[in-house]
Amino acid sequence: MDVLSGKMLAMGIAIIAVAGPGIGLGLAVKAMLESVARQPETEKRLSTYFWAGAGLIEACAIYALVVALLIGFVIK
Amino acid sequence: MLELKKIEVKMEINVGEHWIGHIFGMSVHMDTLITMWITMALLIIASFIMTRKLSIVPGKAQTLAEAIMGYFMGLTDNMGSEGKKHVPLLATLFLFIVSANLIGQLPWRLYHIKSGGEFASPTNDLNMTAAMAIIVVIYYIGAGIIKKGPKYFLHYFRPMPILAPLNMLEDVIRPFSLALRLFGNILAGEVMIMVFISFFACLLPLPFMLFEVFVAFIQALVFTLLTSAYLTLSLEEH
User: Fold this and answer.
1) Cα–Cα distance between B136 and B134 in angstroms, integer?
2) Distance from B55 to chain A by nearest Cα, in Å?
3) Scanning every residue of chain A, which has its alpha carbon at the shortest distance from the alpha carbon of B12?
C-alpha cells in the first residue's frame, strides 16, 4: 500500500469520530427544546448556556477534522 | 469543425502553506501577519470614529459602543469588586476574533502571492490562535497570583488534594483546546468553501459563507466566555 492510499484510508477513518459530537449536540438541543417548551420565559438565559455548550461540543468534532486534514495535507 | 479547447483548471487546496518571511532573523508567516495588521487597523480606526464626540446624550455610534461595552462589563460581575479591570482583555479578545474571522470572507484570492500561501483570516493559522490562548493562560494565572499572592497555588488542591495532578494538567489542556477550537473551526470553514469553489464557483459557496459569518460570532463568543469563566474560577474566594 503506497503512501497516497494509506493517507486516504486514514483520512476516511479519522472522520468517523464526528459521530460522537453529533449525538452530543442532539442531546443538547433536545434538552434546550424541552426546557423552553416547559418555561418559555427562561429562553434568553438558557440560550447563552446553550450556545456556549454547543461551541464546546463542536470543538471535539473539530479536533477529529483537524487530525484528518493533518494526515491528508501536511504529512508528506 | 469545432474544436473544443480543453481548459484545464488546477485548483490547489492550500492547507498549511504560508508565505514565509524573515524578520529579525526569525521566520514568520507574512500572510497571517499582514491580515492581522489590517484587522488591527480596522478595529483601531472604528474605535476612533465611534468615540470622537462623546456627550452625555449619546449619538448613534456612541450608543452602539456603550451597548457593546455594557455586555462585557456584565461578564465581569462575578469577578469580585475589582472585576472591571479585566474588561479590556475580554472586549479585545471578542472584537479582534470576530473581525479576524470575518475578514477571511473578503475576496482576498484576487491577489496571488508568488511565494506560496494566500491571504485569509489570521485565525486560520495555528500560531495566531495559540498565541492568544497562551496570553489567556498567563493572564488568568497572573491575575490569580496578583490578587491572592502565593495562596493562589492552594486552589490546585481544592476539591480534594488527590485531584492536584488533574488540576495542574488542566492548565496545560485549556490553552490547547482554546487554540485548536478556534483554528479548527475557521480552517475547516475555509477548506469547505475552497472545495465548493472547485466544484462550481458561481453561487454554490454562498450558503457556506453565510454559515461562516455565523460561526465567526459563535467562536468569538465561546472564546470570550471561556476566558471569563477561567478568570472567574481563578479569582474566586471561598
Assistant:
1) 5
2) 32
3) A73
* Cβ neighbours of B222 in A, within 8 Å: 51-52, 55-56
Interface test with A, best of B194, B215, B222 (most A CBs within 10 A): B222
Spell out the domain ranges in chain A. 3-74
CA-based end-to-end distance of chain A: 15
Helical spans, DSSP H, in chain A = 3-14, 19-38, 43-69
Question: CA B147 to CA B41: how far, in whole Å?
Answer: 34
Q: Which CATH architecture has domain A3-74?
A: Up-down Bundle (1.20)
On chain B, the residues whose CB falls within 8 A of the CB of A74 are: 15-16
Q: Are B173 and B116 in contact (CB under 8 A)?
A: no
- Do B18 and B125 meet the contact criterion of CB atoms below 8 Å apart? yes
pLDDT tens column, A12-33: 999 999 999 999 999 999 999 9
Cα B14 to its chain centre, rounded Å, is: 21
B191 contacts in A (CB within 8 Å)? Answer: 69
Low-confidence ranges of chain B (pLDDT < 70): 1-14, 238
By C-alpha distance, which of B12, B36, B205 is closest to B117?
B12
